[in-house]
Amino acid sequence: MAEAIQLLVVTVLLRPYAFLFLAFYLTAASVAIGWRRTALLTGLAWVVASLAEYSSTRTGIPFGVYSYISDTKGRELWISNVPFMDALSLAFLAYVSFTLAQWLRLPVGASEREVTAVRRSWPILVLTAFVFMLIDTAIELVALRGDHWFLGEIYEYPEPGFFFSVPLTNFFGWAITGFVTIASFQQIDRGLAAEPTLDQGVTDPVWRHALLPDPGLLTS
């Protein structure tokens, strides 16, 4: 236990950018959707992503076959053969995708009833999965070439894929992971009561709605 805690601390020092994004996400999401929903989404995203990563590195499902480079084992926290921070980072991306999907679907001045119905709807679920996949197209271009950046080499594919050396199965895997995460969140969200959040106007800039959305868009 003490070793795991020590590795977690070292992980924060080794990957400060990931935990800065995580801190920003937790703050923004807690303000917008409340701490219970934030904790729920974070936990669901981490579990789903961890299972998907664990499966893919062994069977190729759902992301395709790949492996993490183990240079940082012993220098950061790993869960089996997957870095802890990798699956955790998907929580932030799931939240951004989910929020952006709602922003694209909801009219300005939507009523609370409309907002709740849209947030829990199938179109939002499908759109979120699609946005989640699109975000990954940009991430892969940077992450796969981490040795050219401060990221360092993180993972590798046994064979170069179609999209800038990334196999198309990876993007299908992201869509599936996003779909399962948000579908699970929507199902549990239906049973949660509303939480008090800070009041914001619907005329705020687009970037604020994507990362720190109007509470009226996300709380019932």
TrEMBL record:
Segment forming the signal sequence: none
Can you say what this protein is called?
Carotenoid biosynthesis protein
Sorted UniProt keywords: Membrane, Transmembrane, Transmembrane helix
What's the source species' lineage? Answer: Bacteria, Candidatus Methylomirabilota, Candidatus Methylomirabilia, Candidatus Methylomirabilales, Candidatus Methylomirabilaceae
Instruction: Locate the transmembrane regions by residue number.
Output: 6-26, 77-101, 122-142, 162-185
